[in-house]
Each structure stands twice: as C-alpha cells, then as structure tokens.
Amino acid sequence: MENKTNTVIGEKRTLDQSLYNSDLAPTPEEKRNWGWWSYTTLWMGIVTNLVAWEVAANLIRIGMNFWEAFGCIGVSYGLVFIVILLNGHSGAKYGIPFPVIARSIFGYKGAQITVVMRTILSIFWFGVMMYIGSKAVNSILSVSFGWWAGLENTHIIGMELNMFIAYLITWLMHAYLALHGVEKIRRFELWAGPIILFLGIGLVIWAIKAANGIKPLVSMSSTIPDGEFWGSFLISMTALIGTMSALMLNIPDLTRFSRSQKDQTIGQAIGLPIMFGIFSLMAIFVTTGTVYAFGSPITDPIELLKKI
C-alpha cells in the first residue's frame, strides 16, 4: 500500500486519501515487537493513576466496607478485561487500529461518528488527567521550595500563578511524550509504572501502622443504609467501568504492535485485572487507614501525602 495504489483486474486505482494514511495502514512486521512484558508494564502505567485511585477510594467514602469495595472493583474490572481482550484480538491479528476496525461494523462513513465520539471522550479525560497531574506537580514544588506557595496570591487567566505554571510543566511533559510516539510512551511506562507501585506499597505500610494492624482495616463496618447497598454497588460499577471506557474501545491501537496473540493476551491478563486489583486494593487499604489516622477518609493521595 506504500505506493498509494492498487490493481483490480488490470485496472489501476488511486486510494482515497481520506481513508488511508500511514497511521491507519496495517502495522508492518518490523514494528510489531511488543512482548507480554511491554503490555504488563504499559498497564502498570495506565492503572497507576490518581483517577483510578480516587474512584476506588471513594467506595470507602460512600460507606462500603473493605470486602464490599473490593468485590465491586473485582466485578467491574473483570468485565472491562473481557471486553478489552475481545476488542484487542483483531488489532493483534491484523495489525490495524480502532478507526479501521470500526469500518467493518459501521461502514467507512459511520465509523467517523465513533472516531468523533472517542475524540470527545479523550479530550475530556485528558483535561481531567492534566488537572490532577498539575495538582501533583504543584504540591511537589510547594514542599520543595518555600517561596512557591506564595505565588498563589497572583492570578493569571483565572488560575493561581503557581497552579498555572504547574499546568504548563505538566502539559509540556505530556507533549514531549506524545510527540515522540507510542514507542516513547512504552519505554517511559517500563519504569514509571513500577515506581508508582512501590510508592503505593509505602502508603499501605503507613496505613497498616495507622490502624495498628491489617485486621482493623478489613473489619471496618459498612455505613451504607439497609436497602441502598445494591444501588450504590451498581452506580459504583458504572464509575469504575467509565474510567476505562476509552481504552475499551481503542485497545486495538495498542495491540496492533503485539508480536502475537499470546503476547497481548498474557501481558494484558497480568497487567489489567491483576494490576488494577493490586492498585485498587492499595487505595482501599490506605483510605481506610486515613479514617483511623485523621478521623475521616481522605481519597486524594496528593492531599494525603501533603498531610504525611
């Protein structure tokens, strides 16, 4: 397809440029080099984000006990894993991304609607991640430099100056990775994901000490009123699954780089349900620990680290 033409019964046709470009073309064999560890570490990076932490932590805040929260997480991410595994199969088999796969269902015109919907969803989530990431950068700079917090007295375009600068720093870091392509992101996740998991383990140890053992963390009673549990359970499932809605659609954009079906299946089986389970378990443990340490649940790990 490199010459942008094809031949049908002796007739030479020019490919429609609106339907083809290098990003939409099947991934060549030399670029299909992602093994199972690449997908495992990629999911470590995807899983270990503040939104996933806060959504899991808020299950404790609304009144679920440890086991109820963990059950809700297990069911939700179990369903997500099944959908992602099914959607990722065609990407690994044919080396094609989500927009091309969507054409087989909606047609080449109808597929544009799904791409626009996914784009809107991606813009929303990018905005959420940028804001939360900016809070983290701002907190790091605030505790590192005594004068940094004083910048909040100056405002620019409706934002405190220190938060505005933190936003720019976060945006530039995102832009650097994005401009260097998905391979750069993969290499970044190889070390970023494990580092965040180690930080989570440190917070779990702190929570166990705050509660004087694991038993108090897992035995705290539920405070959800009788008759309201299943409604809260289903709403919480919607929130948990919603955080993964974009990737449930566009996972072929990542599995198209897989060396084989086995690599993407094993890597995602380790990286998605297991890592989500571990990370969410950390969030539940730590949030329950904050109840013992401070008298009320703290769901934002940034605020928690600042208190510590």
Automatic annotation (TrEMBL):
Record carries keyword Membrane: yes
This protein's UniProt keywords: Membrane, Transmembrane, Transmembrane helix
Family affiliation: Belongs to the purine-cytosine permease (2.A.39) family.
Membrane topology: Multi-pass membrane protein
Principal place of residence: membrane
Entry's localization field: Membrane
The keyword Membrane belongs to this UniProt entry's keyword annotation: yes
A Pfam match: Transp_cyt_pur
Record's protein name: Cytosine permease
Superkingdom of the source species: Bacteria
TM helices/strands, residue ranges: 36-57, 69-88, 123-149, 161-179, 191-209, 229-249, 270-294
Matches recorded under InterPro entries: Pur-cyt_permease (IPR001248), Uracil/uridine/allantoin_perm (IPR045225)
Organism, as annotated: Tigheibacillus halophilus
